[in-house]
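User: I'm curious whether this sequence folds into something compact or stays loose and floppy. Could you predict its structure so I can see for myself?
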Amino acid sequence: MGARDDSDEAYVVGLCDLVLGENALTQHTFDWLLGDPGTGGRRARLPVDAYWPGHGLVVEYRELQHDRPVPHFDKPDRLTVSGVHRGEQRALYDARRNVEIPAHGLRLVVVRPADLDADGRGRLRRSENADLAALKKLLSHDSTSDSGSGRRASDEDRVVDAFRTWLLGEGWTPVDPTDRWTDLEAVRDAERLICEAKGRTSEKGIDADIAYGQLLRRMTSQDPRTRYALVVPSSSVRAAERVPVHVRQLLRIDVYEVTDDDQVRRLPSAG
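Assistant: Here's the prediction. I'll summarize afterward.
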């Protein structure tokens, strides 16, 4: 094991794995999250600390040097490809992550030492039970922070809100989800509908595949009166339709489109 495997970052990511029930892709890169041009104009991909595809979630663990000057890390006498020293570049790239990750349909949660049990130098004491409780709260869909982490992308909020309004008009009653990661759950008489929603994204195919996987994990009931809904904006309909109709019928999955003017329509369920 390298030194990084025993770092506070690795410790935090490991606890997040326990909370989420999924192992993270660490130091993951996306083709749309790039640094500034270097020699020859090449732009390197910026890694994120941890990415959970099944949850559409990115976690960044930002130690003290991300929020205050630390000469040891900042190297103020040495300029980077961004034309500024490393501390300023770190702030620029953190801001880029804050904007680009939600813009691409993923949820970003930023964890800082102050959120956990840490000493005055920002070193974690590794009080596992207390840290787990804090991370469960931070990773919940309801948590928010000053950087906007913990919030869903705004277009996903729009899709969920429009679908909720449509459900109410159709006689459904939203209820507390059986699985806390479910975007929306509703009942109507003896029927139950478990919903996964996605907003506009540049990764339509990947996000649709992730959404289907999330619904599959929630298929814990054999009651035929329980159905599942994939709710997507108009721009993602084609990606959602890549799963054949007969497969969706077998799995009791219905696909709903939310148009740009917030109208809802159920896609045909028979060929």
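Summary: The chain has two domains: 3-139, 154-266. The chain is about 30% helix and 20% strand.
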